[in-house]
Amino acid sequence: EQIKKGDFDHFMKKEIHEQPDSLTTSMRGRLKDGVVGLGGLKDHMRTIRRSRRIIFIGCGTSYHAALAARPIMEELTDIPVTMEIASDMLDRKALIFKEDTAVFVSQSGETADTLLALEYALQHGALCVGVTNTVGSTLARKTHCGVHINAGCEIGVASTKAYTCQIVVMVMMALAIGSDKMSTLAQREAIIAGLTKLPEKVHDVLKLDGEMKALAQSLIEEQSLLMFGRGNNYATALEGALKVKEVALMHSEGMLAGEMKHGPLALVDEYLPIIVIATHDDSFSKQQSVIQQLHARKGRLIVMCSEGDASLVCPDGRSRVIEVPRVVDCLQPIINIIPMQLLAYHLTVLRGYNVDQPRNLAKSVTTQ
Ligand code: G6P
To answer: Hey, which of 61, 239, 366 would you mutate to test ligand 1's pocket, going by the most ligand atoms within 8 Å of its Cβ?
Structure first.
């Protein structure tokens, strides 16, 4: 086991640091001359483009990855995208039609709830697409078509590199499905250029390791942690909070910043730590106003912003600021989750818990 971990103490740490490489592998052979080629979807592209709706289905981290890719999928394809947590879809016997494209996202390809939702969608005649890390998995075999994320074997129970590779694959899917639209050509070119530079930017953000360890040190005694995000980074708030919950065994909630005034604001005081994701995209001014409202209630803030924006998000220097490299908006969730993964990792080690095998959890939940 130690040999497999290489220079790292834990698989989670190794997998966090592998992300520049796993993302490169995920994209390998799929971006040629400014065009995205996804062989696994080729024969079904016409059906996908004609579908009335795309439904993203998954559990846990895989669901969050789909949520992160949802805005760009809608923007580039002009097809409405809805989200389903697999168990809830089954509980509600959600409506699904043969004009739908159902995209199932699962690292293992063996999660029972996701596979049952797949059976259900197949019975209702939807086109079923798989996004998985596991070649030969049940998901890969039973879907009509799909894309492997090629993140490499992930051992830590808390998913890290699979999450970022899932997002990259779904962004590439959005580019491929939307590639017949001239109106988005410049935007698609900018995203492809961003994908090419992404591994290097991920490498840069990993340098925040020491800073995240220091932040973790300041939070080890806390009972609770909130994370506010919106737009492309709503998923980052949910996934960051899930990481902290799963491995550091600390209560943590990710929240939609737009909902703050409808309840969560009541929790704000000078003690409860709140991470606000406010990197520079078209939600930035709204997040600035969220920060002001939290400051007005003496909130204890940790703000994640784009490099060079510290004075914009925190003019009086009162909050702790985490500066991250800026990339195109739809790829920013990949950059932004990395400090949160590092924070969860360090919190866990400092609190003395098992990083790779958190209590009560399994890497793949194969029972209902
Ligand atoms: C379990 C794992 C999570 C994972 C979820 C979905 O709960 O502990 O880390 O996100 O299953 O797994 P999947 O293999 O379908 O992505």
So the answer is: 61
